[in-house]
Amino acid sequence: MNFINSIRVKTGLLVGLCLLSILSLKAQRKMNTKPTDLKVLVLFNTESGGTYKMAKAMAAGIEKFPGATAVLKQVPRIKALAHEDKQAFAQVPYASIDELPDYDGIAFGSAVHFGNMSADMRYFLDQSVGIWTARKLEGKPATVFMSAGSGAGREAAILSFWSTLAVHGMVIVPTGIMGNQEIDKTLPQGNTAFGTTSLAGANAVTRPSEGELHLAALQGYALAKAAKGYQATKDSAPMAPLTAAKTNSTTGTIAAGSSTIAGAATRSKIEARLKALNITLPDAPAPVGNYKPFRISGKQVFINQIALNAGKVDHPGMVGTEVTEEQAKLATRQTLLNVLAVLKQAAGGNLDHIKQAVQLTGFFYTAAGYTKHAVLMNEASNLLVEILGENGMHTRATVGASSLPMNSAVEIQAIFELE
Ligand SMILES: Cc1cc2nc3c(=O)[nH]c(=O)nc-3n(C[C@H](O)[C@H](O)[C@H](O)COP(=O)(O)O)c2cc1C
User: What is the largest CA-CA distance in the chain?
Assistant: First the structure.
């Protein structure tokens, strides 16, 4: 009996110790967690420095948000300013249009020029056609702040600025009435419900006023908060594109189906090519573990697929024993079509946005000594070139494996470049 009791006590102690160490490990992990790197751009254009001062306040507000870093840049000038090198903002680097997609949010600041944004800002944004058609700013939070003189047309200036952001599909962060209770109301102030402005032409105090700078900081904080939400979802797969519409004759409503709408097919070159080849892309297989179906890094898309077909693997087993080479070729073809289905998601539903294939790596479940991997892999390579033409050409590696996930005979790793 004593012996049994002592075993119970020891077991109890052991369980207690284990629980303690799990708890302390969890606490340690929590302490070691680094805040996520949230990067927000404050992009401005100024002549006499008012918008620059607002931009600095905006950046300070952004950095008040946990884990957020503000990057201050100015738009390049159409024509250099006289004595620009003597200005306080001379050291602020110029932005390039291609870097806009790299941020989790963007605050745009400009002087009000005739109820509009400045010509430098307009000229800069007019160079964003490439990133617009590639839908690179879609869903990204943006906000607008401005420096005005008398304030004439300042709200119209912000609203007209918003049009460009809306055409990019950006999520616009307005200011509403934030901070209005906190500013000195005995002075004319540049607060608007759309974005903060400064009334540089209103005397009595140095402009931007303390209140205007405070409002700009609040606006920056609100932008960072929205950017945090965007950061968490920006890599989610887009909704499957509408590939068919069937009109319900009773209700008159249109529902998504599985065949291709004639109009949509003619809109995309690659869709037309697929149709001509009588190829229908499968539904992109859902991940079966803790990973994403694709990841975009810079302009490159990374994808890995096996021969899944409607939830089951096509022709599973070892090539040469359970699976013939002909069956392995069919499995390879299915795997490549899965890669393309995922690629289409990554390209926002339009394969025309693929600049080129970069590399394919084919893994085949084979016995030791098997040597005809290249013959099997040609099935994928040829199909890719058939569909994408010259842009489908790629470098390639093939490997024999002693087993593959879900007993698939083949797995393909693919890298593509987006436009
Ligand atoms: C070409 C031009 C047009 C302007 N139009 C307006 C205007 O429509 N409304 C306004 O309030 N101020 C207007 N201003 C004044 C500027 O918005 C003001 O000086 C502003 O503070 C400049 O910003 P900055 O200090 O960042 O250069 C205009 C200035 C210029 C040079």
Answer: 97
Residue 27 has what pLDDT? 42
Alpha-carbon span 309 to 283, nearest angstrom: 9
Q: Is 117 in the pocket of ligand 1 (CB under 6 A)?
A: no
Q: What class does CATH assign to 269-418?
A: alpha beta
Interhelix angle 373-388/325-346, nearest 10 degrees? 40
pTM of the model: 0.59
Cα 113 to averaged position of ligand 1 atoms, centre (Å) = 5
What pLDDT is recorded for position 253?
38
- Per-residue CA distances from 269 to 87, 130, 266, 273, 354 (Å): 50, 18, 7, 6, 11
Q: What pLDDT score does 289 carry?
A: 84
pLDDT at residue number 236? 75
> With 0-12 CB in 10 A as exposed, 13-18 as middle and 19+ as buried, what is 66?
exposed
Which superfamily, per CATH, for 38-232? Flavodoxin domain (3.40.50.360)
For the chain, residues classed under CATH 3.30.1330.40 are 269-418
pLDDT at 38: 96
The reported pLDDT for the residue numbered 11 is 53
Residues of the chain with CATH 3.40.50.360: 38-232
Q: Which amino acid is at 125?
A: L
Ligand 1 pocket mutation, candidates 113, 145, 155, 192, criterion most atoms within 8 A of CB: 113
CA of 68 to the centre of ligand 1 (A): 31
- Which residues of the chain fall short of a pLDDT of 70? 1-36, 238, 240-267
